[in-house]
Design brief:
It contains 21 helices and 2 strands. The chain is mainly α. It has a domain at about 15-100. A hairpin with a 2-residue loop joins β1 and β2. The longest helix is centred in the first third of the chain and has 31 residues, at about 5-35.
């Protein structure tokens, strides 16, 4: 038996086992959610997600990457269902994707030295800046649980970026799996977003009533801003924008389903900040696409918008139009005005305390340093505020140095061969940069999206060349067949898994 055929068999067995584990995880979760066992899911789901991620990771790194993407998208929905069915709070379920992102660190702690190689510098600098904020937080605050939670939000995206660097020789397969998860995931959260707006499931209504997030709207159908399976309209919008950008460059026919569904749900989030980011990234995409593809995407997007506006009732259409009009008139945007007032108060405070307040700022406290006229401007309301207050000026400079080195490395490595494949990730990075003033793009699910795009971008040409040497063509073809058997779709670009 030849070495190539042996590798094909190994790839095939690993893919099948990873698929079996993922299917078991999904079926068991669904079974427990519809039985009286929903209550124990508060702790059982995070444990089950971690164990499943552990074994999927051991079987297949590409499958593990896709598994983590799905957890980011679906864990908030599982939490809401458990809270609705069992009562109480089930916030620990949100920890599931964070725990899954930590699996590579747990199993490859001895490989942390990779961070001191040129490939690991961006993550190393970002982690150093974050650890500075952690040290300040421990020194200044006496609420360790709050610090631990915020630390998880900051560090999980870096854990996953480390995984991508560590297995950069499999970058083609891993990237294909992530792109596949985003295309299918965009369809799923797009469909659920429409259902949520038109019908509104009781667990979503229950969550709106008890979450205290008045910006979402009323717990009634067609009276809310869509958040689908995610925690907030803004978090959903970030994933929809990323999904649209990835789908645009996909060669799969599924993109003609993903793009309109995502476009409609994005519109229904009414997240004006995300509209700015989407517009910037979409312009970058359009300029990089062939003329035929530009026309196709433009037609689908316009038809999607016409469809949703035609389906809305008169009063809801007026509300949506009024909100959209503020996109071009920021002075009429209430949330924009609040943020600007917040910046006017907080930035001078930051200059008077350049070392920062550290991680673990309790924004619910009356003495919170993020208070403006009695109302908190939380870390999630601005990536700039999150950096300057959480990490201080020293930590921010170090963290931003990591991001800057990633961008510079990616720019230097750009190549025409990989241009199409990198276009979607470049668009995501640009969208994150545009929205940083009104959204924390460095932590949690949005931070995960930002760091995935950033890491793929700066691994661009050099590591893809290494992957081509490391993985024989037939082995990549075998991986592609296994992924397709598991319900996959072709990935981006003309030369990925082709």
């Amino acid at each position: 038996m030849t070495e190539t055929s042996t590798q094909e068999r190994r790839f095939s067995r690993s893919g099948v086992k990873a698929t079996q584990i993922s299917v078991f995880f999904v079926l068991l979760t669904l079974l427990l959610l519809v039985t009286p066992a929903a209550g124990p899911m508060r702790y059982g789901f995070p444990a089950l997600a971690f164990i499943s991620a552990f074994f999927v990771y051991r079987q297949s790194k590409p499958f593990y990457a896709g598994f983590v993407v799905w957890l980011w998208m679906l864990a908030p929905l599982v939490r809401r269902i458990v809270e609705y069915r069992a009562g109480g709070t089930a916030s620990l379920i949100i920890a599931s994707p964070f725990l899954a992102c930590g699996v590579p660190i747990l199993l490859n702690a001895s490989s942390l030295a990779e961070l001191f190689s040129p490939e690991g510098y961006p993550i190393l600098f970002a982690a150093a800046g974050m650890l500075y904020g952690l040290g300040i937080g421990i020194a200044l605050h006496n609420h360790i649980p709050v610090i631990a939670i915020e630390l998880a939000f900051w560090i999980a995206p870096l854990f996953f970026a480390f995984f991508l660097i560590l297995f950069r020789r499999e970058v083609r397969e891993i990237r294909a799996s992530i792109e596949r998860a985003f295309i299918w995931g965009t369809i799923a959260i797009g469909v659920y977003g429409l259902y949520q707006y038109l019908v509104l499931a009781p667990w979503d209504a229950f969550w709106i009533e008890n979450s205290g997030l008045v910006s979402i709207g009323l717990p009634e159908a067609q009276q809310l801003r869509v958040f689908s399976t995610m925690n907030s309209p803004q978090g959903l919008a970030a994933f929809l924008v990323g999904g649209i950008f990835i789908a645009v460059l996909s060669r799969s026919w599924l993109k003609w389903l993903a793009i309109p569904l995502a476009s409609v749900s994005l519109l229904l989030t009414q997240s004006r900040t995300s509209f700015y980011g989407f517009a910037a990234g979409f312009i970058l995409l359009v300029f990089g696409l062939p003329a035929k593809q530009k026309l196709q995407v433009a037609i689908v997007s316009v038809l999607s918008v016409i469809l949703v506006l035609g389906a809305l009732e008169g009063d809801r259409k007026d509300v949506l139009f009024a909100r959209l009009q503020t996109v071009t008139a920021p002075s009429e945007d209430g949330s924009f005005s609040i943020r600007m007032a917040g910046y006017a108060v907080l930035l001078p405070q930051m200059l008077s305390n350049p070392f920062g307040a550290g991680l673990g700022i309790d924004t619910s406290s009356a003495n919170s340093p993020l208070e403006v006229n009695g109302e908190g401007l939380g870390n999630g309301d601005s990536g700039i505020i999150a950096l300057l207050f959480g990490l201080g000026i020293p930590g921010t400079l170090v963290y931003v140095t990591g991001i800057g080195s990633a961008l510079l490395t990616g720019f230097r490595r750009r190549s025409n061969v990989e241009a199409d494949e990198m276009l979607a990730f470049k668009a995501i990075i640009l969208a994150s940069a545009v929205t940083v003033f009104a959204s924390n793009v460095f932590t949690g699910s949005t931070g995960f999206l930002t760091w995935v795009a950033l890491t793929f971008y700066y691994m661009n040409s050099k590591q893809l060349s290494a992957a081509a040497v490391y993985s024989p063509a037939k082995a990549r073809s075998a991986t592609s067949r296994v992924l397709d058997t598991a319900g996959g779709t072709p990935s981006l670009g003309s030369n990925v898994l082709s």
